[in-house]
Fold each of these.
Amino acid sequence: MKILTAPHMERCIGCLLCLVEAGTVKSSVSLNNTLIRVIRKSSGFGAEVDETAVGGEAERVVKACPRNCLATAEI
Amino acid sequence: MANYSRQVLAVNLNTHEAEYGSYADLGRNIGGLGFALELGIQHRELEPTVLSIGPLTGFFPFASKVCLLSVSSSGLTESYLSGSLSLMLRFAQIDCLLIYGTSKQPVFVSVHSGGQVDFLEGEAAEPLFYKSGSLGRRSFLAFTDGGSLADNYFKLHDEIGRRLYRRNLLGLVVSADRTLNIAKEKDYSELCREILERGRDLEVSYSNQPSCALCPAGCNFSKETEERPELVLSHCLVTCGFAKNIYENVPLAFACLNSLGYPFLHEDLEGLEKMVAELRAQF
Ligand code: SF4
């Protein structure tokens, strides 16, 4: 089973494209998804990801990131 | 109409009260700069600062700025702010934030979705202010006399930030948790993809700086304010000026608006320059 991970947050620019993609479901969009949160740190950005997110949902968010910060991992 | 509610939040620093509601019909005024100018004129006697997002904000790449207008007896100051405030205003369902008056004591203002506002009084409220809202779904503005910042990085126009600070406003945070509808999902997704692919048409190169919301560029100018009064369509959409080769294009702007369900016509977009010139002339 594949899960969402955030192994390269040192590349993150805080564009939040992942957050909006994660919250886009059919014909609605919100920031309330639990898949990912991008958090501004004193230097750079970090992420909290929901490691129970699987399959297509996780892949979609990975693809949305323009800096390849995110990945899926097999568990 | 799916998303265009034209919700205005008016924050009165004199009384520490706020009023949230749908605004009177503004006809063919699509939003952003046009909306801010209308409100600035209607409330001129209050000498407000107006923060306004555009109809594409929060939905489309590079629709990432906030239009800031400051109205005073000496005229109008106009600037465009980078960062994530635009996205948070959209998902707080606030098209326009009007701030006026002067607080008797220093105050931090915390704005939640749907126009709920907490006034955190006194400088000692700062730690509480920075705990407001939900982690990762909020945007902070901090005002000082010597340079104000959004998200601790993006610069505010000096004079606009200073004016708010002198009204005893030390900080503003907007937290967002609303769900919004997209009228034509397929058109919307295709347009988003097409616009992202057109990143090569930006006037700046991609870099690794902190970026504005929904901008993959992370350009070397992201922290700067934008003042380019000639970009009328971009400023009414409140898209980034560096994306002018993408958005200063009526058919594309129309297609984006249409995918979200806005009722505007081509003629409305073509008439914006004249409308904005007439509104600006009233200051
Ligand atoms: S899409 Fe990538 S670069 Fe942008 S905020 Fe998310 S993790 Fe960071």
Note: The domain at 1-283 of chain B is CATH 3.60.9.10 (Aldehyde Ferredoxin Oxidoreductase;  A, domain 1).
Amino acid sequence: MAERRLNILHLYPENMNLYGDRGNVLALAQRARWREIPARIVTREVGQPVDWDAVDLVFMGGGEDTHQARIADDFLALGRELASRLQDGLPMLAICGAYQLLGRYYETADRTQLPGLNYLDVWTEAGDTRAIGDVVSYTDLPIEPRSLVGFENHGGRTFLGSRARPLGEVTLGQGNNGEDRSEGAVQDRVIATYLHGSLLPKNPHLADLLLMWALMNRGIDDRLEPLAADEEFGAHETILSRSRNS
Amino acid sequence: MNIRLLAAVLAARLVGWVSRMSGRGGSSLPGLIARRVYPSVLRDLAAKLEWGAILLTGTNGKTTTAAMVRHIIETEGRPLLSNRAGANLILGLTATLVQAERWRIRPRADIALLETDEATMPRAGEEIQPRLIIVTNFFRDQLDRYGELTTTVRYVARGIESLGPGGVLVLNADDPQAAQLGYGRPDVLYFGLEGEAAKTAEAQGYDAMDARFCPRCGTELNYARRYYAHLGHYLCPDCGWRRPDPHIAVVRWSRKDHEMWVRIHGQVESFQWRLPGIYNLYNEAAAIAAGAAMGSRPTAIRESLATFRPAFGRMETLMAGDTRLWLALVKNPVGFNQVLSAVFEEAHEGGFSVMIVINDRYADGRDVSWLWDVDFEHWTEKLSPRRWYVSGLRARDMAVRLKYAGVPSDQVTVDENVNRILGKAMDQTGGETLYILPTYTAMLEVRQELTQLGLVRHFREG
Ligand SMILES: [Zn+2]
């Protein structure tokens, strides 16, 4: 049986960490360590090599336009290998800019189509206004509770094709496009979303699902022992209560 | 006298008077009314200032730097008007000028010192036609308001276009984005640090991610020295762009003696350095540079700063019985790291507790993601308070942040109610120091409660 440890690959932490997205990586690593699963965070910037066989879980966040432009070519070059690994079941959490880059294309306000990795069956169009605010959504993923909470801040509107299903349905906030109430996308073991906040620290059940997927991918089919999560669900509840009061 | 100007000023003052009577202070309504009645009101009033206007902008340190500059100017006996910290958008600036006097229409002051929001700089510059612009630094801050850092820098650059001939631009040489604003200009006065950079006390972790790329060509910058975040002595390996040599350079400092030595156009003078933290060296250097830009002599600036006392809430302390309260605003990752660094500098002097109050109203930034960019992992290892107190609308998020940084839950008291936890924390900290670190609106709540308790008689906002 494979060794019970995890390597988390954080892609472009210097360029793609606009809204505290490293909180997600900290949450994954800590929740593994609290279960005595050694977790190592490996970062990769433009031009550096990746030892894909040693990667159990991938994280990538969003960045400023200028920073995103700086990594785009490198990411697309990396993309072929990444996409095939994702298809084989490598889990990934992609937030905001990374979500858009995993899709088919991003269409700017002047109708130029910037190509994405074409892995996720989604596409994004520039919106007239930014969607900014608290979000509550309900997911069909096998996790308890079904609620997810976070903060969205995006100008792009993302639409889902038939191969991607929404991560959740919003009861507070705009979600993917402000039209169909969908938020985020799930395909294989990839979770893509617009939620910051940071996301995983106040959605520990989603963090644990990603960790479980990572262990499964490593060939370890064991369950994660439960952890006390009073603080985390306290923060979760702060936003949930806002959706009840709105 | 322009009759519309007269009407605008009087209407605004009336509205201001009514809103104060009804207990709503800090309103932007007077500015709005004045501009409705006469859209050029700010332009007209600013044009009549005898010396001119100073715009002070940047992410961190605006309020402290402004307070020092104000003190320098006032010590010299020059009549000055200035805005409150919160009143830094165009309506607030307008309100400040129309309400500067009670009976006169035009301000008596020669100089207006205006702390200005970065996004307001283009408009403020265009209408006010400043004579001096000071830029402290650029960090990521409240992205739900501004968008991206590059956008913020662009706003300030547009504001600087309004600086007329004979004007001076005071820039932080150690901040690549700020320094770059002076590229190719002859009218710049740079300030910066030249002493040894501390290796231990500063966070060197994730806080360095804002602007480490060359603002001219986008290549990652090399640093010979780094003071904190991206402030330091940088050089672009690609295009060769480097930190400009500062005219005002802090060459040495001693925390123990509360003293800093500053080279001003080649001459070294010593200054009192009361406020802890490297970032306050920058604030003071910026103020000294502003004083120099206005023609004050170094010795006069030194004498003035020797009597400077910070506004309460900007790292000033207060005694509540035998408990020492120490307040410092936190509003973005770099600022928070610097405040924790200052707590670390001070805290070895005795037992202490730390209280963090996080709100997420508009003025605080509605997204609390930034708490995850504060290097708590680094600081919780070094700081060992007797107890952590966590409060505010987002107390629960802060509690999670501490948990993931390795602070055991039984060392943390969580209560969203600020007044309740403040009372409890003050009781339990008897005889020691309570460091209180609130976000902007949380700061207002803490002060209000301290006023209610009779500990603060009155305070100036900021
Ligand atoms: Zn360069």
Note: The CA atoms of residues 255 and 276 of chain B lie 8 Å apart.
